[in-house]
Amino acid sequence: MAVTSSGPAASPVRSTTSKAPNHYTELSRMVTGSGLMRRRYGYYWTKLIAAPIVIAVVLTVFVLLGDTWWQLVTAAALAVVLTQVAMLGHDAAHRQIFRSGRWNDWTTLVIGNLLVGMSYGWWQHKHTRHHANPNKIGSDPDIELPVIAFTPDQADRRRASRSGPLRWLIAHQGVLFFPILLLEGLSLHASSVRRVFAREQLRRRPIEIAFLAVRLIGFLVLVFLVLSPGIAFAFLGIQLGLFGVYMGMSFAPNHKGMPLVPADVKVDFLRRQVLMSRNIRGSRVLDTVMGGLNYQIEHHLFPSMPRPHLRQASGMIRAYCQEHGVPYTQTGLWQSYAIVVRYINRVGLGERDPFECPLLQQRQAV
Predict the structure, then answer these.
(1) Among 332, 287, 316, 284, which residue's Cα sits nearest to residue 91?
(2) Which of 7, 44, 311, 318 could staple 97 via S-S, CB 3.0–4.6 A?
(3) Do the strands 330-331 and 279-280 form a parallel or antiparallel pair, or are they unpaired?
(4) Is the pLDDT assigned to residue 180 strictly greater than 50?
(5) DSSP class of residue 308?
(6) Burial of 252 (0-12, 13-18, 19+ CB in 10 A)
(7) Is the dihedral of CA 221, 223, 229, 234 positive or negative?
């Protein structure tokens, strides 16, 4: 029987790990030998061709409908389509589509910057650090957000600097997490624009700026040409809000409420990726809805594995983790959201160790 867990494990790791055998090397040989790392060109070319066609169809419907409140339905449809396209860009950025790094880079630039309006350079800078050290304090940007506290120390600092209603909001931040996602779409666009104009080094900066300008400015011009101001602002609110919620609800279950790793602790690669990640069980429909992100453990262990192979790989990897005593966390979708809300709330209330992870607590100092 596979090692699974229905609950979270989110206490900080308190000690450095003992030297462990490199089980990941053995697992990698098994996965590679099974053929699960081979490219799926037919699958991805179908999606690459379909993406711009579907966007064009939605925009054509938008223009033909004209100035009507029915455009709010179009806005919702566009939010879903753009999220699915962004997930395809995520696959390309992880080198899942082509063998050539250059082909993957340009595919991501076109999908991310031109079609979705998100900077590839910004995403790459942020997401690479997350994959290297998921849930590691001081290293993972995904647990260093300005609005929500994900660690007890963050919550302590914010409580000390705020009073009255703001302190109450921190204590109840879990229930605010999903409403805040309504602003995530706007935040993603804003972060992308800031990144391409920042002084930090950025490959293909002129291309990124040009693609983003065409996407963001061109889209705004189109919306206000077709719609009256009131309907236009409502359209943008629905489209950006649902885009942010869909993106956030796809990524949030993956690591929130899983163990936190202090800055001075080292964990071997296999456990670093498995113990800090959570899978979401479900059908192939869920696989499509979440863009394969429901197989977060497999994705973190083998980021370049094509999305269609993740489901098959999960059985092999789950069995391997059972054999080597590594907890493999898997929950239902709604249960994962409940875990996230409960964990964030308990951090906001000041609990130092909201949940426990037995394996990590057992690992002794060198």
Answers:
(1) 287
(2) 44
(3) parallel
(4) yes
(5) G
(6) buried
(7) negative
